[in-house]
């Protein structure tokens, strides 16, 4: 649990630095999770305590925008066995709406 808290604070620091580096701030001023890279980092931070280091076998992770309000982050399935981690992250406040592991 302590690792998850430390990771979460690290992610928050990354988010703050990413926001200050945005060049097109007008279009993204109400979105704290405005890009796919940030969404993927948040997903990794919540997957790691739940699923462990096995998530890294499911790289590359991809993030796609859904309805301009949510990022859908998924791992990559490399074989017919197993599954991949998934997360839905709200853009305006970085709230993790859902995480699950599927086939």
Percentage beta strand = 15-25%
Helix fraction?
25-40%
Shape: globular
The overall average pLDDT, rounded, is: 85
For the biggest β-sheet, the strand order reads: 1-2-3-4
Uncertain segments of ≥5 residues (pLDDT<50)? none
Following the backbone from N to C, one meets helices and strands in this order, namely HHHEEEE
The assigned structural class equals alpha+beta
Describe this structure in words.
The chain has helices at residues 2-20, 25-28, 36-51, and strands spanning 62-66, 70-74, 84-90, 96-102. The protein has one domain (2-24, 32-102). Strand 3 and strand 4 (96-102) form a beta hairpin. Helix 1 packs antiparallel against helix 3. By secondary structure, the protein is α+β, with helices and mostly antiparallel strands. It has a four-stranded antiparallel sheet with strand order 1-2-3-4, covered by helices on one side. It is built from three helices and four strands. The model has no long low-confidence stretch (mean pLDDT 85).
Structure keywords:
alpha+beta, single chain, 3 helices, 103 residues, four-stranded antiparallel β-sheet, globular
What is the topological layout?
Elements: H1 2-20, H2 25-28, H3 36-51, E1 62-66, E2 70-74, E3 84-90, E4 96-102
Antiparallel strand pairs: 1-2, 2-3, 3-4
């Amino acid at each position: 649990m302590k690792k998850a808290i430390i990771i979460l604070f690290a992610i928050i620091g990354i988010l703050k630095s990413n926001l200050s580096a945005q060049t097109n701030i007008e279009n993204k001023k109400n979105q704290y999770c405005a890009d796919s890279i940030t969404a993927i980092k948040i997903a990794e931070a919540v997957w790691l305590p739940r699923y462990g280091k096995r998530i890294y076998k499911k790289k590359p992770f991809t993030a796609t925008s859904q309805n301009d309000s949510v990022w859908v982050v998924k791992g990559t399935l490399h074989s017919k066995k197993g599954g991949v981690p998934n997360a839905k992250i709200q853009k305006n406040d970085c709230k993790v709406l859902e995480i699950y592991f599927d086939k």
